[in-house]
Amino acid sequence: MSWRRRNATCVACTVLLLACAFSLAAQTIERAEALWKAHDYDGANAAFKALVAAQPKNALARVRWGNLFYERFNAAEAGKLYEEALGIDPKNAPALLGEAQILADNYDPKANDLANKALESDPKLYQAHELMAKTALEDDNPKKADSEADAALAIQSDALEAIAVKASIDLLADKQSPWVAKIGNRGKGYETIAHFYMINRRYEDTIQYLHKAIAATPDLWSAHSELGINLMRLGREGEARQELQAAYDNHFRDSVTANALTLMDSYNKFVTTETPTTALRLNKKEADALRPYFQEEMQRAMATYEKKYKFKLNKPVQVEVYPDHEDFAVRTQGLPGLGALGVTFDNYIAMDSPSGRPPGEFHWASTLWHEMSHVYVIAMTNDRVPRWFTEGLAVHEETAASPDWGDRVSPEILAAIRDKKLLPIAEIDRGFVHPTYPAQVIVSYYEAGKICDFIVQKWGDQKILDMIHEFAKNRPTVDVIKEQLGMEPEAFDKEFLAMIDKETGKAVAGFADWTKQVREISQLAKEGKNDEVIAKGRAIEGNYPDYVEAGNVYNFVAEACLTKGDKACAMDEWGRYSKIGGRDPETMKKYAKLLQDAGKLKEAEAALERMNFIYPIDPELHERLGNMLMQTGDAKGAVREFQVLVALHPIDAAGSHYNLAKAFQAAGQKDQAREEAVNALEAAPNYKPAQKLLLEVSGDEK
Amino acid sequence: MASPAQMGCGLKFLPVLLVLALTPAFASTYIVTVAGLGGEPDYEQRFTMLANDVDKILRTGGQTDRIVETLKGPDATRVKVEAALNKVAGQAKAQDAFVLMMIGHGTFDGMEYKFNLPGPDISGAELAALLNKIPAGRQLVVDMTSASGGAVNALKKDNRTIITATKSGSEKNATVFARFWVEALRDPAADADKNEVISALEAFQYAEKKTAQFYSEQKHLATEHSQVDDQQHAAAFPLLRFGSAAAVANDPAKRDLVAKREDIENKIDALKYQKSLMAPDDYKRQLTQLLIELAKAQEAIDK
Description:
The complex is a heterodimer.
Chain A: H1 2-6, H2 8-19, H3 23-37, H4 41-54, H5 59-71, H6 75-88, H7 93-105, H8 110-121, H9 126-138, H10 142-155, H11 160-172, H12 179-183, H13 187-199, H14 203-216, H15 221-233, H16 237-249, H17 255-265, E1 270-274, E2 278-283, H18 284-309, E3 317-322, H19 325-332, E4 342-345, E5 348-352, H20 364-381, H21 387-401, H22 411-418, H23 428-433, H24 440-459, H25 461-471, H26 477-485, H27 489-526, H28 530-540, H29 553-563, H30 567-580, H31 585-597, H32 601-612, H33 619-631, H34 635-647, H35 653-666, H36 670-683, H37 688-697
Parallel strand pairs in A: 2-3, 3-5
Antiparallel strand pairs in A: 1-2, 4-5
Helix pairs in contact in A: 2-5, 3-4, 4-5, 5-6, 5-7, 6-7, 7-8, 7-9, 8-9, 9-10, 9-11, 10-11, 11-13, 13-14, 14-15, 15-16, 16-17, 18-20, 18-34, 20-21, 21-24, 22-27, 24-25, 25-26, 27-28, 28-29, 29-30, 30-31, 31-32, 32-33, 33-34, 33-35, 34-35, 35-36, 35-37, 36-37
Chain B: H1 4-7, H2 14-22, E1 29-35, H3 41-59, E2 66-71, H4 78-91, E3 97-103, E4 106-108, E5 113-115, E6 122-123, H5 124-132, E7 138-143, H6 152-155, E8 160-164, H7 177-186, E9 197-199, H8 200-217, E10 227-228, H9 231-235, E11 238-241, H10 244-249, H11 255-274, H12 280-302
Parallel strand pairs in B: 1-2, 1-3, 3-7, 7-8
Antiparallel strand pairs in B: 4-5, 5-6, 8-10, 9-11
C-alpha cells in the first residue's frame, strides 16, 4: 500500500518540470507549493483556488492542486481536478498520470490504460512506466514488471521506483539484488519494496524494509504509518502505536493512520482469553456469548489441520473478533482482494463478529476455518505461496469441514462461467489483485477453491500437501503444476473446466429460464395457488440447487406446504434447504420447530446447532436449543446454551437464569443451580418456578 | 408490574407498589384499539393484522373486567373513533382504567399531530378533548404511529400515561414498534418480574428493546425511538393478568397472604437498594434468606 499512498510527490516532480512553460502561473503555483511544503495546507489550498479562479483555462494549476488533494488523502477531490484539467487539455500527461495513480491505488487494472495514454502524450514520462511496472509485479508478472522498469530507467537512469521494482523482483524470488544498493539513502525506494512484501503477505520482511526506509529518510512519515500498521498486524502494539503516533503528530493523518490509532484506543473494550495454543480477543459486550463457540472451533480446526497438514504451529494463534465492521476494516485497508470477512497476518487473524452483520449473512465458523487454514499454509511456506493457492485451499477447507459451510454458487459466478471468464491457472492471481469486472474477486475465490477441490478429488489430500511444500521453495505456479500434477497448465485448465461444466452446466445453461420460473412461482405464491407452487418449485429446484438466498424456491415450496397444513412436506423441503447450506435463522427456527413437533428432537437440535455457527447472538436460539437439550438429556449442552443466553442479557432475565439453574440441577451442579435460582429471583422475586427450585436446592437452609 | 429492580431505582419506586396494592382489583378496564389508514396494501394488511392480534389477545382468558373495542380498516373512521371514545366516556367510572392503542401512520407538521384515518384524520388536540371526557382515573395512551412523539404535548394530562413509538414528531418513517408491542402482550417473557401481570412499563420495555434489536440486526439506522412519559405510572398500570394472578386478584380471601408476601417483597427491595453499600457475600446471604422466606410465603398462598 505504501507507494500508493505517497506517490503524489513523484507526480509533483513531473509537474514542476512542466511548470516552467507557464511562467505566469508558476509564480503562483510556487507560492502555493511553498505553503504546502510548510504544512500550511489550508493556505496552499486557498492559493490554488485563487489561481484557478483567476486562470480558469490553466490545466496545470488544476493538476497541481489535485496533487495537493491527493497527497492530503483526498483522492476524490484530486480526481475531480484531474478531470477538469483533462476537460481543458484532453492530452495533459500529468493529469492522466494522476488519474492512473488513483485507479492504481484501488488496484483497478484500468490504471494501465491511462498510464499508456499519458505516455502517448509525453513519451518521456518515465513515471508512467514505473506505475505499470508496479501493477505488473502486483499481478505476479515479474517479466512485464522488469521490462517496464527498464523502460523507465532508459528515460531516467536513477528512477527510484523503477529501481525499487527491480529490487523487489529479486527479493521476492529470495535472491540477492544489486538494485537495493542503488536505492541508497532514498527511503521511498525501501518503502516500495516493503509494499511488495506486504501484498505477498511477508509481513516480517515488510517491517524490515520499512525500518530501512525510516533509517534512510527519518521524516518519511508515510513509512512510519505503514510500519505502525504492519506492527499492529503482527500484534506488536506498543511499537505500532509509537510509529502511528509519530506519523500522526507530523501531519500524516490519512484515514488509515487515524483509524488505526482509534482502533488501538478501543482495545480496552476487548478482553483476551489465552490458552497455551490460542488467544481469543473479543469485545467485552459479547465475549461471554461468543467465547464457548469460538474456542471450541479454534481447537477443532487446529486439531484437524495439524493432522491433515502434518504440521504443528510453533506459536499461538490469535483471533480478534470485531463487532464493528469499521474496526475490522482498519485491519484490511490497503490490502488487495476482498478481505471482507476475515484476514490473516501470519498467526494473527482478524475477523468480523457475527453481530457485525445481519442475521444469516455470515457463517463465522466457516470464515474462522478459512483463516486458520491460512495460518498453517503461511507458516508451512514461510509466506511463500501464491495467493490463489492459499485462498483456494482455505475455501476448500470450509466445505471440507462441513458440506453446508462455505459459500454457495452465486448468480455472478454462474454468469462468469457462462461468459467463460474463469482465468487459466497460470494467471489466476490476477483475478484477486486487479479484477477487471466487479465480481471477479468472488469468482476467483470460487475458482481457486474449486481447483483445490479438483486436485483433492483427482490426486488426493497428499497432493495438496506436496504442493504446499513445493510452494515453500518459492516455486512459481506453472512449475508446481507441471511437476506435481504431471501436466501442462493448459491441460490442467481443460480438465478442470470439464469438471466445472459437469457440476454447474445445468445451472449455467438453465439460469435464465430458472430466473423466469422463480418469478412465476413468486406470483403463484401471492395468488395462493399452493399446489402449483409446490409442483413447479419442486420441478425446478434441482436446476439451481445452490440458490438459498432471499426468494429461494425451497421457501416458496415449504410455505405453500404449511399453508396446506402439510407439515411433512414443509419439513422435507426445509431439510433440503438446510442440507444444501441455507442459513436464514428465521427459516431454520421454523424448520426446527416442525422437527420438534414431529418428535424428531435430535434433528431439531442439529438444525439449531447449525445456527450457532451463523448467528449465535440470538437469545431465542439458545433458549430453544437449551430446552431441547434438556429434553434429550444433554444437561451439559443445556448449561452451555443457557449460559450464553444469560450472557446475551435477554428481555426475560429471570427466565434465563431460571433455565440455567434447571440445567445445572440436571447436571448435578447443585451449588451453581442455587446461585442461578437466586439470580432469577433477584430479578423477579415472585417467579414461582424459581421459588420452587430454590426451595428444592436449598437443603438445610430450607 | 415491574419491580423496582427492573427499573433500577430501588426505594424510589416503593410508592408504586402501594399504588398498585390500592388499585381496586374489581374495577373495569376499557380498551379501544384503532388501526388507522395504511395507504398501501402492505401497510393496510399489517395494521389490520396487528389490530386483530391485539383484539384476540385481549378477549382471551375470560377476564370479565375488560371491555374491548377494536376499529380497523374501513371502520376506523374519525366518526367511529369519536363514537367509541364517547361510549367509554358514558360508561367508565373514576375507579376504572382506560387504554387507547393507536396503530398506523401519523403526521406532524411542526405544530399539530394527526392520526391518519380513512376519511378525515383526527388531531392530537381533538383526541385529547375526547379522552378528557372519559372519567376513568387511570388512562394509558399507546400511540404507535410514525411521528407519534409529536402527540405527547397535546395528550399530556395527570394520571394519563403516554407511550409513543417515536421520540418526536420529526421521526416520520413507518414504525415497527407496534409489532413488538403486540408481541409483548402474548409473550410471557415480557413479564420481567414473573408476577403474572404484564404492566404497561414491561410491555413498553419489551417492545423498546425488540425495536432497537430489529434495527441493530438489520444494520439500519434506527428511525424511531420509543418513549414513555411516566415510568412510575406505567409500572403501576396492569395491562394483562394471566395464570393464577388473575384468580388471586379476584379472591378477597387471599388478601392477607398477599399482604404478607408484599411485606417480604418490600424487604427485598430495601435490601437491593443497599446492595452497592454492602459486602457482596453479605448481600447474597441476606437476599437468599429473604427469597427463601418469600418462596415459602408463596407456597402458602398457593395451597
